[in-house]
């Protein structure tokens, strides 16, 4: 079982997100107050910290010093278990992973690894998510 280590939102796309203590995930919409929310297949971004192992050593300092670009940062679940189609319960909410990475990779700061290893998907069940909440893979 994993856990939530950070929650982050921004009103606009393309800017660093601000860390918040809790978020409200809304079914079919995304994270309340976040610029990526809406009726599409990348409503929520989830970044497993285990993906940092894939950052080249010459990029690590840059990636770690960059601000958050994902909504939910998690730890404790293997990347191999977070595939397209995987359904995860995070706090009260349920999210289905529909994409790994982005179509176009970013080359600088935290987006470097999020664009390659971030998990993107939709909220399939509304609920509150708090820092420290459990994360677990579920069957639907």
TrEMBL record:
<protein>
    <submittedName>
        <fullName>MOSC domain protein</fullName>
    </submittedName>
</protein>
<dbReference type="InterPro" id="IPR052716">
    <property type="entry name" value="MOSC_domain"/>
</dbReference>
<dbReference type="GO" id="GO:0030170">
    <property type="term" value="F:pyridoxal phosphate binding"/>
</dbReference>
<feature type="domain" description="MOSC">
    <location>
        <begin position="15"/>
        <end position="138"/>
    </location>
</feature>
<dbReference type="InterPro" id="IPR005302">
    <property type="entry name" value="MoCF_Sase_C"/>
</dbReference>
<dbReference type="GO" id="GO:0003824">
    <property type="term" value="F:catalytic activity"/>
</dbReference>
<dbReference type="GO" id="GO:0030151">
    <property type="term" value="F:molybdenum ion binding"/>
</dbReference>
<dbReference type="InterPro" id="IPR011037">
    <property type="entry name" value="Pyrv_Knase-like_insert_dom_sf"/>
</dbReference>
<dbReference type="Pfam" id="PF03473">
    <property type="entry name" value="MOSC"/>
</dbReference>
């Amino acid at each position: 079982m994993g856990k939530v280590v950070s929650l982050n939102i921004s009103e606009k796309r393309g800017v660093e997100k601000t860390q918040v203590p809790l978020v409200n995930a809304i079914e079919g919409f995304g994270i309340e107050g976040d610029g990526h929310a809406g009726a599409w297949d990348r409503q929520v971004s989830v970044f497993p910290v285990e993906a940092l192992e894939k950052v080249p050593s010459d990029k690590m300092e840059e990636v770690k010093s960059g601000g958050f670009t994902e909504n939910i940062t998690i730890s404790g679940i293997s990347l191999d278990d977070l595939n397209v189609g995987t359904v995860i319960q995070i706090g009260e909410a349920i999210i289905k992973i529909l994409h790994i990475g982005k179509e176009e990779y970013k080359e600088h700061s935290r987006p470097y690894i999020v664009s390659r290893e971030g998990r993107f998907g939709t909220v399939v069940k509304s609920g509150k998510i708090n820092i420290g909440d459990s994360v677990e893979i579920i069957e639907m």
